[in-house]
Amino acid sequence: MKLKTLSILIGGAALAPSALLAQFAGPQPVAFDTGTTSTDGWYTLTSAEYPGYPGFPGSGPWPSGMAPQTGASTAILDKVSNGAGGGPFPASSGLYNGGFSGDANLNGGTLAVNESSPVTGLSTIVFQISIGESNGYDFFDNGGDIQSPELTISYGSSQSITLSPDITELMQAYNNGTFTPPEGEPQDLFINLYGYQWDVSTYSNITDLSIQWTGVQHGVTYGLQLDQSSVDYGSTNMIPSVAVPEPAEWASIVGFVTLGLVMLRRRRKSAQ
Q1: What angle is formed at CA 9 by the lines to CA 261 and CA 66, rounded to 5 degrees?
Q2: What pLDDT tens digit does each residue of the chain (272 aa) get?
Q3: Contact (Cβ atoms closer than 8 angstroms) between residue 228 and residue 122
Q4: How many CB atoms lie within 10 A of CB 175?
Q5: Angle, vertex CA 16, rays to CA 12 and CA 17, nearest 5
Q6: Is the whole-model pTM more than 0.85?
Q7: Strands 150-155 and 208-216
C-alpha cells in the first residue's frame, strides 16, 4: 500500500502527519499466544513527548534514555553515538537525525533499545521500526554493510554474542512524497516499517539484550516496538502483517489531505 501525503522536505527527508503515521506506518501488535511475554513501545518519538533533549543538530548529550510509552521501564531507548556533524534528537514529528550536509547516505547516529531484564526463559524476540528515508536511504550503508538492527545478548556465565535477525520483513513501504537526486529524475520517498525476528532459544540464562542500528543523516525514526516471548517459535514467522485500510478509511485520509491543502491555500491568500 502506498499513500502520498503532505510533507516537509528537509535534505531529501519527509516528515509526515503523525495522525496518518499512527494508522499506516506504526508498529503492529504481535500475536504471541502462550508463555511469558512483554511488549515495549515507543510510538511518539517527538519533542512534545520527550522534552529537555538537545535540539538541532542533535550532537548534544541526551539527559537520559527514553522510557517506552507502553511496557516495562527496564527497556530504554538510548543514543549510542552521534553521526557526521549531528545526531538523533526528538523533533516535532519524530526522532530526527540532524546534520548540515545535503549528501546522501551519511552516518546520522547510532541508537539502541536496551533491555536489562528480559522475560524469564526468553526464546523469541520481535522488533519493529518505522523509519523515514532521506535521499533514498533509511539505514546507513557503510560500504555495503547496511547498519540495520542487530541483537546483542548476554547469557550463560558472562558470555555475549551479536546476532543478525533470523527473519527480516519489509512490512510496509509508505509513500511520503518524492526527492530529486543531484543527477536524475525525481524518485519516491518512503517511510518503511520493518520487522525483525530472532530465535534465541539455544542460549540459556539471558540476562540482558540490546538492539542497535545506525540511520542516515536527515532520516526520521517514528516508532519502535520490542516484543519478547518465552515460547520457542523456531522458524515460524511471528512478524505481524499490516492491515489494508477499508474504503471508509481511505475516504477520511483523502479528506484530511484535501483539508490541509485548502487551509494552506487560504493562508497564502491571506498573506498576500
Answers
A1: 105
A2: 333 333 333 445 655 544 445 445 589 999 998 899 999 999 999 999 999 999 999 999 999 999 999 987 799 999 999 999 999 999 999 999 999 999 999 999 999 999 999 999 999 999 999 999 999 999 999 999 999 999 999 999 999 999 999 999 999 998 888 988 888 889 999 999 999 999 999 999 999 999 999 999 999 999 999 999 999 999 999 999 986 554 444 344 434 433 433 343 444 334 43
A3: yes
A4: 16
A5: 155
A6: no
A7: antiparallel
